[in-house]
Amino acid sequence: MNDLFINVTPLSLILEPLTHEFMRRALIVSALVGGVCGLLSCYMTLKGWALMGDAVSHAVMPGVVVAYALGIPFSIGAFVFGVGSVALIGFIKQKSRIKEDTVIGLVFTGFFALGLVLVSKIKSNIDLMHILFGSPLGISSSDVQQTLIILAVVVAILLFFRRDLMLYCFDATHARSIGINTGMLHYLLLSVLSLAAVAGLQTVGIILVVAMLITPGATAYLLTDRFDRMTYLAIISSVTSSIIGVYISYWSDIETGGSIVLVQTIIFLFAFLFAPRYGILKSHGSTHL
Amino acid sequence: MKNSLNSHTRGELLGIEAHEVCVDYNGTVALYDASLQLKAGSICGLVGMNGAGKSTFFKALMGFIRPSTGTIRINGSSVSKAQRDQIVAYVPQNEGIDCSFPVSVWDVVMMGRYGSMNFLRIPRESDRQAVWHALERVELLELRSRPIGALSGGQRKRAFLARAIAQRASVLLLDEPFSGVDVRTEKLMSELFLQFRNESRTILISTHDLSHVRDFCDLVVLINKTVLAYGETSEIFTKENLTMTFGGMPPDLLSGATSSEDYFQ
Lengths: 289, 265
Ligand SMILES: Nc1ncnc2c1ncn2[C@@H]1O[C@H](COP(=O)(O)OP(=O)(O)OP(=O)(O)O)[C@@H](O)[C@H]1O
Ligand SMILES: [Mg+2]
Fold this sequence. Notes:
Distance between the termini of chain B: 20 Å
CATH class of chain A: Mainly Alpha
Number of helices of chain B: 11
Bound molecules: adenosine-5'-triphosphate, magnesium ion
Helix content of chain B: 25-40%
Order of helices and strands of chain A: HHHHHHHHHHHHHH
Distance between the termini of chain A: 55 Å
CATH class of the domain at 1-87 and 208-265 in chain B: Alpha Beta
Number of helices of chain A: 14
Largest sheet of chain B: 6 strands, mixed
Oligomer: heterodimer
Number of strands of chain B: 10
Shape of chain B: globular
C-alpha cells in the first residue's frame, strides 16, 4: 500500500482502480445508470415529478425484499410495487379530499415501512444497507445483468417516445387534441420511473435515488433554454458525477452512493452560481434573449 | 328558432354537429340539450355571458369532457377520429402551460405538426415549411428562436394560433382568441379568419366583443347553459335574442357600444 502512494501520478489515480474487476464493473454500471437516470431526470423536473420520483423509489423497497425472498429477479418485484404505489396514490387522491402531496408522502412512507418490516422478518441474505445506500463496488454479476436489461428497456422507451413525452410534459391538452394517447404516456412515464428507480438503487441506494432522478435535470435546466440540449447536459453531468463519485469513493474509502450524489450536488451548485443566464452570479449586462 | 339552420344545411357538408349534448361537473349542470349543426366553411361566433358554458362546449367538442349524454361529430366523423386525422385544431382560452419550459417558439409551433409526422416525430421539409408559413401568417417569424416564456401574453396567443395553423386542420376551435390582444393583432387575426374561410375551413370562435360577430361571423350561436339560438348572423343576431342570452340585460351595455343601433341594422 505504501509504495503505491509514493509513485502516485494523476494517470495512476485513474488507471490503477481499473485493474480490479469490481471497479471496472462499478464504473460501467454507475456510468450507465447515471446516463439513463440523467435523461429521465429532464422529464421528471419539467413535469414537476420530483416528489413522485421520491415516492416511487421508496415504494420499491418491499418489492425488492419480496422478490429476493421468492427467488425471482428483484427488478420484477420492485417494478410491481413501484407501479402499485403510483396506482394507489392515484386511487386515494381520486376517492378522497386529501391533497396530492400529502397522499404521495403517506403512500411512500407506508410502503417503505412495509419494506423495513419485511426485511427484519423475512429470513434472507439481503443486506439492508445495500438496498438503502447502494453498493456499486460490491454488485454481483447477476445484478449487473438485470440492471443492464432494465437500462436498455428504459433507454429504448425514452428514445422512442422522447418527442411525445416532451409534448406531454409541456402541454398535455395539445397532445390529446392531436390524438395522442396521453393516458398511455402518463403510465409509460411512471413505469419508466419505477424501472429507473430500481436501476438507480443499485448504485446510490433507495434513499438517494431521487437525486439521480432530479439533480442532473435541474442542473441542465439552469444551463439552457433548449430541450434537446438540456437532455445532453443532464446526461453528461450525471455520467461525469457517477464516474468521479466512484473514483472518490475508491480512493478515500467513503460511501459510494453518497459520493456520487455529492458530486452531482456540487455540479448543481456550480450551475446555480455560474450558469450564463440563470446563475445568480451572472454578469449584470446579460439579457434575456 | 333552434332549427333555423336546417333548411340551409340540408345537403351541405357539416363542419360541427352536436346533438343534445349535456355536460355536468360532478353533478352541477354546465350544459344541457345543446344541439347545433354548423355548415363547413363558415366563421361562427359563440356568444354568451361568463359561465354560460362556452369553454365547456369547446372541451366537450374536443372530447376533454365526456358529455353525460349526446353525440358530437366533426366533419362527419367522431371526435377521436377527427383528432387522429388532424381535422380539428383547438386553442384553449388559457393555454395552461409552464412558461419556463425550455422550448422555443419554433418548437411550439412544430408541435402542431406532430400528429402528421411519423412515430419518431422527425420533421420533414414539408413540416418545416408549414411551421415557417404559420409563423409568417401571425407575424412571429422574427421571434421564432425565442424561448416561449420570453413572449408577451399577446405574442404567446399568436404563437398558439400559429400552432393551430401549422396543424392544417379544416376545423378550428378557438376559445376567446381576442382576449388580451392589441388592436393590431385583433385586425391581423380577423383577417386571418377571413382567409381561413376562403380556404373553406370551419372556424368556431367564442368572443365577448359583439362587434366581431357583426363584422365577420357568418353564423352565430347564442348560449346560456344550452344553445338558445343559432343560425345566420343576420337572422339570429337580434336585440331580443341578445337580451335573452345575457339574462335580460340590454346588449348595448354589455358590448360597450355607444349605440346599440350599430349592431343591428
Ligand atoms: N372544472 C370545473 N369544475 C366545476 N365547474 C366548472 C368547471 N369548469 C367550469 N365550471 C362551471 O361551468 C360553467 C361554465 O363554465 P365555462 O368555463 O364553460 O364558461 P364560459 O362560458 O367559458 O365563461 P367565460 O366567458 O368566463 O370564459 C360555469 O358555471 C363554471 O363555474
Ligand atoms: Mg371560457
